[in-house]
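Q: A reviewer asked whether we had any structural model of the full assembly, not just the individual parts. We don't, so I'm hoping you can provide one. Inputs are below.
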Amino acid sequence: MKRVALVILGLSFSCSTAWSDQLADIKSRGVLTCGVFGDLVPLGYQDPKTRSIVGLDVDVCAAIAEDLGVKLDLKTVSVDARIPSLETGRIDLMTASLAYTPVRAKQIDFSSAYMNVPVSVLVKKDSGIKSFADLAGKKVSANRGSTSEVFARQKLTNSEVVSFDNGPASYLALAQDKVQGMAMVKSAAVGFHNRSSGQTAFLDEALFWEHDCVGVKKGEPALLAAVNTSLDKLESSGRLQTIWDRWYGQSNEYQLPREKKVTPASEFE
Amino acid sequence: MTEILSQYGLLLLVGQFPDGPIGGLALTLLMSVAALLLAFPVAVAVAIARTSPIPAIRRAAAFYVTAVRGIPLLLIIFWAFFVLPLVTGVTSSPEITVICALVVYEGAYLGEAIRAALEALPKGQTDASRSLGMSYTATLRKVILPQALFNCLPSMMNQFVLIVKNTSLAYIIGAQEVTFSANSINAQLLTRPFEVYFILAAIYFILCYSLSRLSRVVENRVLRKRSRVTNQPITETPSLARVPS
Amino acid sequence: MNLHSLAVLADPNVQLLFLRGTLTTLELFFASAIAAYALGALLVVIRMSGWLPSAAVGAFVEYHRNVPSIVQIFVWYFGVPQILPQSWHTYANAHLSAFFFAVVALSLNAAAYISEDLRSGIRAVPTGQMEAARALGMSYLKAMRWVVVSQAVRGAAPALVNQALGLLKTTSLALAIGVKELMYVARQLDGETYATFPSYLTPTLIYLACTLTLMAIGSRVQQSTRFTR
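A: Here is a predicted structure for the entire assembly that you could use as a starting point for your response.
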């Protein structure tokens, strides 16, 4: 009796995994669960006045949810939790500054890139550092578990890369001269740069271009296709440009131009 | 410092609540209380297993306690957060993960505190109730545990202070408790880490210091009660009165 | 989960990474332990001699007991340099590493606990011992050294070894300020290779090897110092 029950349980389990389609699930639930950061200005952070999570990543996922015709449910994630939360299905879509890397692409699927930004190195203006070569023998901070950390370690072989748990800590290390450079995606680093009252400068070279995509669990082609279609629609309707301008445009402190539009994954794979 | 408090005080206290998930100091306290309540039955079980008459159970419990004592709590948290989901396929929020890790951790430490209280009871108590015909479980439940648990109330409160402090590690995996709130304030102010960390340290200090004072009050009560209990027989049979502590 | 990920451990670079991490952890531990025991003893002397008001030492102890270690580490690494005078500040940031600040924070924290253990060890020695030693013509210092302290240390030995165990485990928090100890390299490896299981299994085994050694030393100490009164 027990064995029969187990077999039935096993069968129903294998069926549900074989036939489940996350897109259909989302539509039937009427809710799209998005993973975003809770501490990264201006992509996903707590607004001190309303204390709710706001940011560019939040707006992008809200626009996708709207396009799919479902409600949005936000969950904050840490840097390291992004991929496990997708794999285990706790989160449907990851819009948490998730950059494409070949290693990550083995674990999850990536949509087209909705944001393309260079990873730059921020230095103190009076340090006399002008290029990557000047950083030889010096220390560079980066966020633990981020692509900037991995690429900085690969590209700045003569520098020592020191990682910290979050952006504020990485920047504090630079501000207090504990490190001489900070490797971070420019869109995030520009916030620190602008608040340094002119004491910092970006190096001209970029460590690499980061393509931030929507992360989707592997084996969900319908969901991935729907996300890509949504992104194309949002690009052609100008919605993505509006979202960019809201967070990075001339109207606020960043004033960062949007250098590249939505880029299909095939271009950077 | 006051303007940091006036602008971000609410964020430190309750996080995004009620517009979003609860965070800040309120989450720290919620996580601590949940961890203590859930760890308590585990700890009692561990303590009983450690003093069990069956050698295999004693050894298994000793292995668990030694392993937990030998690993940093941060590593237990990483196991629960990064490795367990890969093995079991079940994933949970950072808050739940930290509570689980604390239950595993405190199950061992609180368990040892309870075991010490169990072993501190005079052996005669067990012998007497067993010779009155009570079973092993009845002896534990009606005679030994009530006294031992009462006697180790102060060490339980000390463990609670430890739990509160240990929830600070949750920020490393992204739970939005009070240390995380302090970090997100740093993200917005950028250049005033000393003030922000000073406020954070003060919050923990006020909370934990009051709890430790409270535990001293409880300790005195327990000692007084115990001495009253043990003082009575002293007049009659002084040789039975000594209770090792 | 696939066990193929264990293959990363065969990579000599990964082995070197863990070796360096282990060495850093041990360096952190020994540097902090030496400083902590010395400072802990000094605190007891200060408190008993009355050079400083006892409340000052008491406040030092209570701060370290009631604030999480990770917050103490942040305060030392990011906070304190900000309030130093500019010239010191520049010197501190140019010459003092994260390792240094981690040792300061860890050893001050452990010293607070150690001083309390030593103090209760001394309290446990009956006052009659001191009186007897003085009556036999020993000077105060001699009586302290040969009669009170020797017994107090023996009595406190198990607790003192326990503090070493706690200190070794607390060194793992130094990753938060970029000290490349065992936890730091574990996270780095996990981030670079996604070989999650071996990334955390290796430090677990290394920590267990170190802490079990300490526990064994602890139980030896406990046996050799057991004395009847």
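A: Points you may want to mention in the reply: Chain C has a mean pLDDT of 89. The two ends of chain C are 57 Å apart (CA to CA).
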